[in-house]
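# step 3/5: fold
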Amino acid sequence: MTNHITRRQALGATAALLAAPAIVRQANAQSRFDWKRFAGERIEVTLQTSPRGLLLQRQNKEFEDLTGIRCGIEVVPEQQHRQKIIVEYASGRPSFDVAELSLHVNKRQVGKARWNTDIKALIADTSITAPDFDFADFGAGMVQYATQADGRMDSLPAFADYFILYYNKELLSAKNIAVPTTWDGMFEAARALTEPSRQIYGHVGRGLKNANVVLWSSYLLGTAQRDMINANRQLITDTDDAIWAGEMYKKFLRDVSPPGSIGFNWNECQTTFMQGRAAMWVDGIGFAAPLEDRQRSRVAGKVGYALVPKGRGANHHCCLFGAGYGIPEASRKKGAAWLYLQWALGKENQLRFLTSGAGVPARSSPFGNEAAIAASTFPREFFNTLNESAKIARAGLPEIVPVTQFRDVIGTALTNTISGSDVATELRRATAEFRPVLEQSERES
C-alpha cells in the first residue's frame, strides 16, 4: 500500500500553517468542546521506543497541563511492545487506554478481533473533538493505511516511515566514492570502504532474525517481484528474485558489515553508524534524529541522506511502514484517551515529528511550514529525500495476520545465510514451512 503524502500535495491541501495556541484556545472557548472535561482522570499510554515515543514522553507534561488528566506513559522496545499489546488485548483487560499499533505488523490481527474503538465515531462527536482537530489534514494514503477492510478506522494514523540510505559523507569523500544508486554499486563501494584494522566497515544492517526481513525486502522491492505474496495471496518468497535479494543480503552482512551483525537490530545499527564505524546504513527515516545530535553522535553534520538504491529490475521502491494510535474497546477512559490522541497527533506534535527528524507525519500541514523546516537542524537534503521517498514507497511487509510468524520464519532463514548457509536452500525451506500457515490464516480471514 503506497503512501501518497508528497510535499506538493500537502501544500495544495493545507489552507494555513499551524494555528497559534492562543487562537486555538479562543476557538475552543466558543464551542462545546472543553480540554478540561476529563480533568482528574488518569490514563495509561503505551508506545514503542522510538524518536516519536520518546518525543511524546518528553512532552507529556504539556498534555497534563492542557487537560488536567494524569497520564502514565511507557515506551517499550518495538518487538516486546508488539507482543505485549497482543497478549493484553487477548486477555480482555488491557492495562492501557492508548496503544501504538504497528500497521505493518498488527493491523489485520487487531482489526479482525475488533479490539480497538472505531475512531470515526469519536471524530463525529463535537463535544469531545476539538474544533481545530481538522481530520482532513491527514493524508489520504495514511488514512487508508489505518482503515480496516470493513471500513472501521481503529487507529488514528500517526506517521509513516520510509527506508532511506544514510551515508557518512566524510568516509565516502576520503576515498572519492560517489553516493551509490544501485545495490551492486553500493556493495562495491562498501567493500572499498571496509577497513577492519580501523574498525570501519562499509555497511551496517539488521542481522537479527525477524528484524532483518525488512532489509531483505528492501532489496526485493528493487526487482520485478515487488512483494512477498501474489495477487492470489499465495506466498512467493522462494522465487529467483527473492533468492537474488537473499544473496544480496548475505553479501552485505557477511562481507562488509561489523562482526556480530547477526545480532543487530536497528538500535545497534544506529549506534554503530553514530560512532563513525559504518559508512552506509539502510533503515527507517525516523531513526535520523540521534545522528544529528552533537552531544551524542560523532557523525553529526557529516550525515548524507539519499534514496535507497535500485535493484536488478525496472522497479525502484523503498519500504513503507507506519503506525496508528488506538483506544481499546475495553478501556473505561475512552473520552480522556481520545483527548490524548488529539494532542499527541495534533498539528503541533506532528510538526515536531517532522522538524526533529523523528518520522514522517501523517498530517499534511507540517510540510507547508517552510519557516519551521528552514529552522530545522536537518539539512534540506533530508527533506528532499523524504519527499522523493514518498513517491516510490511501497509496503515493506505483506499485510497478513501472521506477519510476526512470517518475520520469524523468513528472518531465521536469512540469519542462517550470514553463518554460511545456502540462500536458495534456506528460502525454499522457510517458504515451505510458512506456506500452510498463511493458507490457514487466509481461510479463517
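# step 4/5: annotate
The beta strands are 42-48, 70-76, 98-102, 156-168, 280-284, 303-306, 318-326, 360-361, 393-395.
# step 5/5: archive (pending)
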